[in-house]
Amino acid sequence: MNGAPDILTAGLKMIASLGVVLVMILALLYGLRRLTRQRMGTGGGKQIQVLESHYMGVKKTISLVHVPGKVLVVGVAGDRINLLDTLEEDDVLSRIASDAPPQSFGPILSQRLRQLGRGWKGKEDRQ
């Protein structure tokens, strides 16, 4: 008979301890969530923006991505993203922001590829 009250008090202590542990875990999760929100919110907005994308084929696109100080031309294919070129931020943003009808980045890309092609031909001629 002496064992029954001991089991009851041990069970109550175990349930109370479990409750304390659960409350501590929830408090830690709340604190971590609040801390990460504060850190993420200090940017003042989106730092990375996709300016424009052009579909090239099945799961293949070329995109203009604006990051602070640069505009990147990236190729996206399946599970890969490749950096194709880096453009001057001022040139691209001024073209996008101008009052003229919006120009797709296709002509900009073809012009840039022609420039790159001329650079490669020049390297071959020197050898």
Automatic annotation (TrEMBL):
Main subcellular localisation: other
GO terms (BP aspect): bacterial-type flagellum organization
Protein's UniProt name: Flagellar protein
Family: Belongs to the FliO/MopB family.
GO cellular component labels: bacterial-type flagellum basal body; plasma membrane
Localization per Swiss-Prot or TrEMBL: Bacterial flagellum basal body; Cell membrane
Transmembrane segments: 12-32
Keywords: Bacterial flagellum, Cell membrane, Membrane, Transmembrane, Transmembrane helix
Protein source organism: Desulfosarcina widdelii
